[in-house]
Amino acid sequence: MTLVILYVITFALFIGLDFLGLSYLIKPVFERHVSALLLDSFRLLPVIVFYAFYVGVLLYFVSWPALSHERSLLWVLGNAALIGALGYGTYEFTNLATLKDWHPAMVATDLSWGIALTAVSATGGVWLTRLWA
């Protein structure tokens, strides 16, 4: 049951924070550089599939080991930041290398956001689960 609580809390934090980040941090930068590529509204299924998988990976490599081996929240923050750098860095640097009009400002903004989002979501998920369970 603890794993389910951890997943639900982390998922909720991730999706809630990312909604804010996408709306106020990412969207303005992407509109400035690749507005012709952006949809008027996002496609829900790919969003859910990505979040479900990403949070699952985050739990597997960081959050669950932190709970079962009593790792510190600082350990969670650092390791989750590495997962965020890997995930968001792969996307951003691949696009920068292969797509015209992909701008370094987009890379810097989205990579920084992805690292912070992943680290805060995982750390908050572990912290809240420890309080709850």
TrEMBL record:
Highest taxon above the source species:
Bacteria
Residues crossing the lipid bilayer are: 5-26, 41-61, 73-91, 111-132
Q: Which UniProt keywords apply?
A: Membrane, Transmembrane, Transmembrane helix
Record flagged with keyword Transmembrane helix: yes
Q: What InterPro entries does UniProt report for this protein, alphabetically?
A: DUF2177_membr
By its UniProt entry, which Pfam families does this protein fall under? Answer: DUF2177
Q: What is this protein called?
A: DUF2177 family protein
The species this protein belongs to is Sulfitobacter aestuarii
